[in-house]
Structure formats: C-alpha cells, structure tokens
Design a protein that fits this description.
CATH class of the largest domain: Alpha Beta
Number of helices: 17
CATH topology of the largest domain: D-Maltodextrin-Binding Protein, domain 2
Helix content: 40-55%
Distance between the termini: 40 Å
Largest sheet: 9 strands, mixed
Radius of gyration: 21 Å
CATH architecture of the largest domain: 3-Layer(aba) Sandwich
Low-confidence stretches: 12-32
CATH superfamily of the largest domain: Periplasmic binding protein-like II
C-alpha cells in the first residue's frame, strides 16, 4: 500500500484520494509499485502469462497482481473509484455494460480505456467417453431455462427436451451469475434459443423485463449447478460424472482434451478455427479495462498494456495457451488504443454490434 500511496501522490487527478490514506502508511518508491488487475476467471490464465512475461522484461518492477474475482465482481471493484486502494485494471469475458459504465463515472472513474485482447468460446463438454450430445441454442435453452418460453420447467432428461437426445438426466455444471461466461451464455446461447419462438420476439417488444427473465433466467432446481469462478473445478466434476455436462471457456477445453470431449453446437465443434471465424455460436471477445488516471500514477501500467499487445498475435504466447487471436485489423485497432490511450464512451457501449 505504501508504494501505491507514493505513486498516486504524484498524480494530480487522484491527489485527494491518496492524501486521505497517506497518514496510515509510510512513503515508498513509486518505481517498485505493482499493477493490480481483477476480474474474469476466463481471462485470468492469459493475464497471468502476460504478467509473467512482463516481469521477465521488467526486472526492476514488481510483478503485476492478478486476481480471479469473476467479471461482474471485477468490474464492480474497478468502478469503486480512483486511488491506491482500487484496482488499475479489470479483466472481462464480456463487454462492460452501460449501467456499469455509469457506476464507474459516478465514482470518478470517468476515463476508461477498453481493449479487446482476444477471442474465446463458451465450450460445452463431457468426460471422454461420457455422454455425447448434439446441442443447439434451442436445446440448451429448453434444458436450462427456469421458465422455457414462459412455461414451467418440467424437463428431467435430455430426451424430454429433444427426442433425438439420450434419456440421461440433465446435469450441467456451469459458471455463477457473477461470471462473464454466464453473461455470455445468456446472450449467445440462451437468448438465441429463446428467440426461436416468435412469441418471445413479440414479448421483447411489449415487456422487455419479462422477456429477459423468461429468456435468460437459469433453472435452480439442481439440474444446473453453479460451480463458482473456478473453471478447473467444473472440469473435475464432469470427469467424475460421465453423464454430466460442463460449461467453461475454450482454453479449459483445449488444455484438458486428454480427459474431456467437446459437445458440438449446431454441429460445429468448438475449435480455434471455428471460434476465429465466428462459425461457432459460442464465440466471444475478451476485454481488459484500464483506468487512464492510473496510467499517470503507476509507471508499470503502460508497459503492462504494451505486453498484452506483444502477446496476442496468432502464434504468440497467448494463442499457445488457448486464446484465439483476433483478426489483424482488430489487433491493429486495439494496439492503437494503447498508443493513444483513447477512452471509451457510453455511446460506443450502446451502439449495436
């Protein structure tokens, strides 16, 4: 804490915040301060690798502190304010929401740099030799929704959802509500499956709040089991139960292919190529958010952002551990953001993709 206080005292933008806590801490050297990042469990292994490479290249600086808190919790911590007791960065497996942007601004975090750092896929898997399912957004929605199409959830087996599927019980281990993977599951899979019913499209126009509840709320009767922010625990659970299905980021599928198998979506397997081309329905971008005010207070922060840029190319360090590289033009655009420190606007968040 002492090092963060000294660093922030040198930054006029957060002088008052730093001064409020100065009396409780000793002074120190700003050059030895560490970058602090919180957020997504999906982005966590990638951020850790970038931090390790950063430390090798910057032996005079402390290693960045990377914490896996989940995307939602991470952004909440990030948005609490500026200063030495708040994180410099938030890692996210989905984009920041407009209401989160507003909360940040209300707490003085009104200059945020948004970087897309790569691509990932929401993978569905089972134990090697275990249950094999040909899934689709429609079948996943019907199996996991609390009120599928506004009706009571009665499906006990996969066959109840689709006669072509086996009569095995629906047992799915997945991410919690605070996870960006859960948010992406809702947006990319559940909502897409829900909208196959024309009545749901009409409901969205007449009552959007009810539509969101019907289309994205996950059942809580034990068929879907929230396993917290540790994706490796989900892998362990499905390995221990051949009839169970797990939901996690593509990198966890790829690193455990010796013991688990992919369950295709719309007949498309979750592979590097299918995610890169967005042929796989669960493909999604990954993000890092940075406080511009902290760029002036923490000397290592800009260098750490540059380390991300050096790491995300196809064939680079991150793709070797399961991240899918962005298209060249997207890489160039995000590298330019690091160089110019361009800040995010609410209009950008609200713009249709």
């Amino acid at each position: 804490m002492a090092h963060r206080i000294t660093a922030f005292l040198k930054t006029g933008a957060v002088l008052a915040i730093a001064s409020a806590t100065l009396s409780a801490c000793d002074s120190g050297s700003a050059g030895t301060e560490s970058v602090h990042a919180v957020g997504s469990s999906t982005v966590y292994p990638f951020a850790k690798l970038v931090a390790e490479n950063f430390s090798r290249s910057n032996a005079d600086m402390r290693s960045p502190l990377i914490e896996s808190t989940g995307t939602g919790n991470g952004i909440q911590l990030f948005c609490k304010g500026l200063g030495p007791d708040t994180p410099d960065m938030a890692n996210a497996s989905r984009r920041m929401k407009p209401d989160e942007f507003d909360k940040c601004a209300a707490n003085g975090v009104d200059q945020i740099i948004e970087l897309q750092v790569g691509l990932d896929g929401i993978a569905f898997a089972s134990a090697k030799g275990g249950i094999m399912l040909n899934l689709s957004p429609k079948t996943i929605y019907a199996a996991l929704a609390a009120q599928p199409y506004g009706k009571p959830q009665t499906a006990k087996t996969w066959k109840d959802v689709d006669p072509a599927l086996p009569a095995d019980p629906i047992i799915v281990y997945g991410p919690p509500s605070t996870s960006g993977t859960r948010d992406a599951l809702k947006e990319l899979i559940l909502e897409v499956g829900c909208k196959t019913d024309p009545a749901m499209k009409a409901l969205k126009d007449s009552d959007e709040e009810k539509y969101k509840q019907v289309c994205t709320e996950v059942r809580d009767d034990g068929a879907y089991v929230d396993q917290g922010e540790q994706d490796n625990l989900i892998v362990q659970k499905i390995v221990g139960n051949p009839r169970a299905v797990g939901i996690f980021g593509f990198s966890y599928l790829e690193e455990n292919l010796d013991k688990i198998q992919d369950l295709p979506m719309n007949g498309v397997p979750a592979t590097y190529e299918n995610i890169a081309s967005f042929d796989y329905p669960g493909a999604r971008p990954l993000y890092v958010y940075v406080k511009k005010a902290h760029m002036r207070a923490i000397p290592g922060l800009e260098a750490f952002m540059q380390e991300w840029v050096k790491s995300w190319a196809k064939g680079g360090p991150l793709t070797k551990v399961g991240m899918v590289a962005m298209p060249p033009e997207t890489m160039a655009a995000n590298a330019a953001k690091v160089q110019s420190q361009t800040v995010l606007t609410k209009a950008e968040l609200e713009a249709k993709k």
